[in-house]
Design goal:
Layout (H helix, E strand, L loop, with lengths): L13 E6 L14 H7 L5 E6 L12 H13 L16 E5 L6 E4 L9 E2 L6
Parallel strand pairs: 1-2, 2-3
Antiparallel strand pairs: 3-4, 4-5
Length: 124
Amino acid sequence: MTADRTNLGEEVPVLIVYGEKDMTANYTPLNFSVPELYRSIQGRRKLMYRVNGAGHLVVWERQRRWLHTLSRKWLRSARHPNRPYNVDGNTTGTFVVPWEGDPVEMDYTSGRTEQPVAVPVEPM
């Protein structure tokens, strides 16, 4: 089997969790941004969470609980017969994790990545 970028987000679901203050993954001189990476994935089965207040080493930072929570939900959902690889029922979308409260869906489709616009989330 050969590597095919079109498999990402379809046969290979994608979960991206990154810190808002991560200057390693969002490095301007190299023209790299995590939201651009998310947009470049062609498939529909992709989720991205930006954790407010976190940096590149989120696994050791105060907001690490969100990395653990999101990863646990993603991995446990793999066995779900109708919606494998989801977080709280979501199989696609972009979200911001605030310091307090639950993740809020965000709209990154405009191309603006620095200050996305909040989108109301319908209760499930």
